[in-house]
Amino acid sequence: MTGLRYVYAICRPFRSALQRQLTGVAGSPPKQLTHHGLIAVVSTVPETDFAEEPLRAHLEDMEWLTATARAHQTVIDALTVVTTPLPLRLATVFRDDSGVRTMIEAREDDFRRILDRLEGRVEWGVKVYAEPEPTEAARPGEGAAAGGTGRTAASGRDYLRQRRTQTRAREDVWQKAAAFAGRLHETLSAFAEDSRLHAPQSAALSGASGQNMLNAAYLVPRRDSEEFVELVDREKDDAPGIRVELTGPWAAYSFTGEFAEEPEVEP
């Protein structure tokens, strides 16, 4: 094969075939490269895009980066259906097959240790958002509704009182959401084999509504996934005004140490 080698993941040998029409980064179909009993899932990508200099420039191009991350994730998702992959970082590229084999040899013990730990397990993501009721702050003299009560602010003093009431209501929702998020994380962590707390997502970056109070990942045996989903559903039934978002099952990005970072890709 000519071109550079883009590596998606390291796996143990698996019997099930990937989808015949599956394509990855740069429209290239993924292939299996076997070495020392491990498999690197790779595809061939052009030097014009993935050599060091053009790749550095592309990583500043959000449109290119998003398309590449989606293609990368498509291959990881396909692998997750048929095996337990150890996904590598986005844009992990080597000169040729020999470079991939050298990488496998250098990290072989780590790869085997992590694959042993992840075998038969998937990652589920859970986010909790506080969503206060939308209010329209009244301005003196404009007759705006105060806090959804149907009353109007007749003076500056009334306006300030209404604003304080709205602020207290928002703070109350955030406090309840924070307490709920803590209880939910404790419950899900007790069920899961492992968990990771990530930094709350910025609404400006994610585009999600509400204040992100919990952004967590849970490592769950595949056979227990249905029970885990049911547990989340039961817990969120008791959370009026609080939004719970469940995603997965994913490859276990959050539990692969330094090898992978989950791409931030819009569905």
Description:
- By secondary structure, the protein is an alpha+beta fold.
- The protein folds into two domains: 4-119, no CATH class; 122-255, Alpha-Beta Plaits.
- 39% of the residues lie in helices and 22% in strands.
- It has eight helices and nine strands.
- Strands 1, 2, 3, 4 and 5 form a five-stranded antiparallel sheet that branches.
- Strand 2 and strand 3 form a beta hairpin.
- It is found in: Gas vesicle.
- It comes from Streptomyces caeruleatus.
- InterPro entries: GvpL/GvpF.
- Keywords: Gas vesicle.
- Belongs to the gas vesicle GvpF/GvpL family.
List keywords for this structure.
single chain, 267 residues, alpha+beta, Alpha-Beta Plaits, 5-stranded antiparallel sheet, globular, Gas vesicle protein, GvpL/GvpF
Compile the SSE list and pairings:
Elements: E1 4-11, E2 31-35, E3 38-45, H1 47-50, H2 52-58, H3 62-82, E4 86-87, E5 93-94, H4 97-106, H5 108-118, E6 121-130, H6 156-191, E7 194-197, H7 203-206, E8 211-221, H8 225-236, E9 242-250
Antiparallel strand pairs: 1-3, 1-4, 1-5, 2-3, 6-8, 6-9, 7-8
Subcellular location: Gas vesicle
Biased composition (Low complexity): 133-143
GO cellular component, one term: gas vesicle
